């Protein structure tokens, strides 16, 4: 396999740059399923859903983030993940995320906003648990 170097990754929320750096691999959940991106990946544009983004850095560290729906772009070893809300796992208060999930589930509402709140809380909890 040819050496394609590393990926330049940017994880961006609507209000801030959440994480930026070099990576060996990025895993994200799209509407088509989970996608793994390695250096040399073909260009792509995809819609991401609420879930967890896993970034394995060039130094061997793993960074985990919870993201809302958004977009994933890959071109020329650059990966851009754009989401309305995104949080790194170490920024998330696990107990508050569990309370948010409980509150969203017990609201009894079945509308899109209630379901989105449940998915967001579940993603936040998964991000913390996966990083532990």
Helix and strand topology:
Blueprint: E1 7-13, E2 16-30, E3 33-37, E4 44-48, E5 51-57, E6 62-67, E7 70-75, E8 78-83, E9 86-88, H1 94-106, H2 112-131
Parallel strand pairs: 1-8
Antiparallel strand pairs: 1-2, 2-3, 2-5, 4-7, 5-6, 6-9, 7-8
Helix pairs in contact: 1-2
Question: What would your notes on this structure say?
Answer:
The protein is 25% helix and 45% strand. The protein contains 2 helices and 9 strands; from the N terminus they run βββββββββαα. Strands 1, 2, 3, 4, 5, 6, 7, 8 and 9 form a 9-stranded mixed beta sheet that branches. The longest helix is centred in the last third of the chain and has 20 residues, at 112-131.
Which short descriptors sum up this protein?
132 residues, ATP Synthase, domain 1, 2 domains, 9-stranded mixed β-sheet, 9 strands, globular
Ranges where pLDDT stays below 50 over 5 or more residues in a row are none
Mind telling me the C-alpha Rg? 15 Å
Largest sheet: 9 strands, mixed
Which structural category fits the helices and strands?
A: alpha+beta
Give the averaged pLDDT, no decimals: 92
At CATH level 3, the topology of the largest domain is ATP Synthase, domain 1
Condensed summary:
The model has no long low-confidence stretch (mean pLDDT 92).
